[in-house]
Each structure stands twice: as structure tokens, then as C-alpha cells.
Write a structure and sequence with these properties.
It contains seven helices and six strands, in the order H-H-H-E-H-E-H-E-H-E-H-E-E. It has 289 residues and is of the alpha/beta class.
């Protein structure tokens, strides 16, 4: 009986000590299991602050020592290269076109495609944006879309730039692969380098001497826009084919002075009637003129 009593007292004291210790421990935050917030962030999810090679700290000679003169020099040079304003990149996919013939010259907008472009132009006009640059792909369907949009917005057609780098293509083999679309490896090799060059040409944080937010309008193609979105947001570029955007849709990306990138619209066509919403190419017999 004495042994049992001693055992019970010892066990009770042990449990009491355990619970008192737990009560005195700092309260851990409650996390939902799906957030994985208690696990280390995957390296591929970390933001690369120098993605455009224009992080101010990478442009200034580092401090050599702890002397105040050296620190003042560093601070002064850093201030000169820090952007003060944002860059807004607005991407427009061309309107619906008819896939007739084997060359780009025969790929003109359908009547619905022209109406889509007009709706988009009106929407851009309503947004009241003062455009700094308008750039269009050199392909016929993008040129026709840009012309219709320019009739609606406040921008001189003579100032529009044409860029062959924005032409449609196969940017990178997609993941997961799709069975209905398998370009040759050489097409990815050829188009991918060009489309990546286009991204580097148009996506970067503002220069330090930019005195206000800037707005650039790019009229291009679905594959190119989807790849740009993945690259700009630092998503795996192979994921581009998981995104679907409608014809004549608006995609709006903002590059802040810090270099952070956010997306305001992705394939927005909410301003169009439902019967104008399309994203696939209507096919026609090759012998149709």
C-alpha cells in the first residue's frame, strides 16, 4: 500500500511539473496546416531583388571600412541610383483572327476580333491613362489590333513603335506537357531566346531620373504575354501554358521603385459583351482566300 501511494504521488508530481512547464512556455502561433508556415521557405519561392540587374545596392561600390567618410560616400551614391517612381506595363492580346493561309500576311482579324479591339480601346480610354510608349508586334493581327485601339486612345499613331521581338512563338517547353501542341525543339530554341530578349527589353524598374509613373502599352500575343507574366512575377516560366487569356484582353503589371512586381489585371475582358469573349483561333480551310 505504501509503495502504491509513493508511486501515485510521484506520478502526480511528475504530471504537475510537466503541465506547469508547458503553461510557462511561450505561446506558439496557431497555423493552418495548408500554409506550411512553420517550414522553411523553398529557395525557388524567394524573391530575387536584383532580377533586372538594377538593384541600387548592386550598382554602388560597397563600403570599404567603417569610417564615416566612406559611409557618407556610399549613401550619397546610393541615393543617386534609387528609382522614385513605378513603371506600369499594360499588355494587350490581339483580337480574334482567322487562320487562313500559311503566312502571317493572311491572318487578319475577324469582324468580332475588330469589335473586341474597339471595346478594349474604349476601356483603355476610360481608364484615362497618359501613355508614354505604345509598342506593337509586327504580326498582322497585332498591327490591326493596335490600329483600332489607337483610334480610341490619346496617342499619336506616328509615335507607335513596332517590335519583331514581340511576335508570337513557343517560349519554353511547358509543364505539364500537352499532347495537342508539340512544337519541334528547334522552335523553342529559336523563339525562346527572342521572347526572353523581349522580356529583358521591356521589363525593368524605373531609371532614377524618371520623374513620374510611366505607362507602356504592348500589343502582342497570348504565348508571349503568358510567359512575360510568369517571368515578371518570378513564377516558373514553364508554367506559362497553365494561364488562359482572352482575345483583346488587358493584363496590367506594375514594377515598383523597389523592383517588386505586382499584377493588377490578368486577361481582363469584363468590359466586353459575353458573346465577344473568345480565346481560341477559329480555323478555316487552307484553300479559303
Amino acid at each position: 500500500m505504501r509503495k502504491f501511494t509513493a508511486f501515485a504521488c510521484g506520478t502526480g508530481a511528475g504530471l504537475l511539473t510537466f503541465y506547469l512547464t508547458k503553461l510557462n512556455e511561450p505561446k506558439a502561433a496557431v497555423h493552418n496546416s495548408w500554409t506550411r508556415s512553420e517550414k522553411p521557405v523553398d529557395p525557388c519561392a524567394l524573391w530575387d531583388h536584383n532580377w533586372d540587374l538594377r538593384d541600387p545596392k548592386s550598382l554602388v561600390k560597397p563600403v570599404k571600412n567603417d569610417l564615416s567618410q566612406e559611409q557618407n560616400r556610399y549613401n550619397s551614391e546610393l541615393e543617386k541610383v534609387v528609382p522614385k517612381h513605378a513603371r506600369h506595363i499594360i499588355l494587350i492580346r490581339h483580337g480574334e483572327y482567322l487562320d487562313v493561309g500559311d503566312t502571317d500576311e493572311t491572318h487578319h482579324l475577324t469582324e468580332r476580333g475588330r469589335e473586341q479591339a474597339k471595346y478594349t480601346g474604349k476601356r483603355l480610354c476610360e481608364l484615362g491613362i497618359k501613355w508614354d510608349k505604345v509598342i506593337a508586334s509586327t504580326m498582322v493581327r497585332a498591327q490591326e489590333t493596335a490600329d483600332i485601339i489607337l483610334d480610341e486612345i490619346d496617342y499619336e499613331k506616328a509615335k507607335v513603335k513596332n517590335c519583331a521581338f514581340l511576335r508570337e512563338g513557343a517560349p519554353i517547353p511547358p509543364q505539364p506537357p500537352v499532347g495537342h501542341w508539340k512544337p519541334e525543339a528547334s522552335q523553342f530554341f529559336r523563339d525562346g531566346a527572342r521572347i526572353e530578349a523581349a522580356f529583358r527589353r521591356y521589363f525593368y524598374r524605373a531609371y532614377p531620373d524618371q520623374t513620374k509613373d510611366s505607362y507602356t502599352l504592348l500589343v502582342g500575343h497570348g504565348n508571349v504575354i503568358r510567359y512575360f507574366v510568369c517571368r515578371a512575377l518570378q513564377f516558373p516560366p514553364e508554367a506559362w501554358l497553365r494561364i488562359s487569356i482572352n482575345h483583346a484582353s488587358i493584363t496590367w503589371l506594375t514594377i515598383s521603385p523597389s523592383g517588386n512586381v505586382s499584377i493588377k489585371y490578368l486577361g481582363d475582358t469584363g468590359f466586353m459583351p459575353v458573346n465577344h469573349l473568345t480565346n481560341r483561333i477559329p480555323r478555316a480551310a487552307k484553300n479559303v482566300v
